[in-house]
Write a structure and sequence with these properties.
The chain is mostly helical and 203 residues long. Helices cover 76% and strands 0% of the residues. The radius of gyration is 18 Å and the shape is globular.
């Protein structure tokens, strides 16, 4: 890519990384609830889930999502159902703000599933990354998409880390088990549930 294309690519990825969505909500809410370590583990899970989506794009399997409404709908329902389940768990979670102990054991896997079960992510990666490929390049289209996707994922993860760093100091003003903390859990849970419903019934 030309230097100006690289700049546009990088700035666009960073900008997209700060757009609120299930992944960002997961990392920030876990940071506020359990601390920086939990947020970083969540960001790692999101990163791994995104790599799965990028692999789908590079292999060309995204074409199946475009031509098979049944598979696409099934993935939407599965992903939406998982978000709803996470929301319920977040609302019912015990008010524990200990940063070093009692961390949920499935932070990485649950965060990875949030990203991996979202078919819109694969379609986004395909549509976005395709704009920066070169049909005349010696490197095949699939390999170009894989390389671009890996770079985009690093920039998205950088945005997650920045949000975690900004969110972590807010924990000092939240009393464990207090109203503000419980309200934050409730809001995060409700948002997950709403996102899940939108994923299931939305177009």
């Amino acid at each position: 890519m030309r230097p100006e294309q690289i700049l546009i690519f990088a700035l666009t990825c960073i900008g997209f990384g700060f757009i609120p969505g299930p992944a960002l909500l997961q990392t920030v809410s876990l940071t506020l609830q359990h601390g920086r370590r939990a947020g970083l583990l969540s960001a790692l899970g999101i990163h791994l889930g995104a790599l799965f989506q990028i692999g789908i794009v590079a292999l060309g399997a995204v074409a199946i999502l475009k031509t098979s409404p049944a598979i696409y709908h099934a993935l939407k329902v599965a992903g939406g159902g998982y978000l709803i389940w996470l929301g319920i768990q977040r609302i019912r979670a015990r008010a524990d703000m200990n940063e070093t102990t009692d961390l949920p054991r499935n932070i990485v896997s649950s965060s990875a599933l949030i990203e991996a079960t979202n078919p819109k992510s694969a379609l986004f990666y395909f549509s976005f990354l395709l704009q920066f490929t070169d049909s005349a390049a010696s490197l095949g289209l699939g390999w170009q998409l894989l390389a671009l996707g890996a770079c985009a994922n690093v920039l998205f993860s950088l945005s997650d880390v920045i949000c975690i760093v900004l969110a972590h100091p807010l924990r000092t003003g939240i009393r464990p088990g207090g109203r503000a903390f419980r309200l934050g859990q409730l809001i995060a849970g409700v948002l997950f549930i709403v996102l899940g419903i939108v994923a299931i019934v939305g177009e």
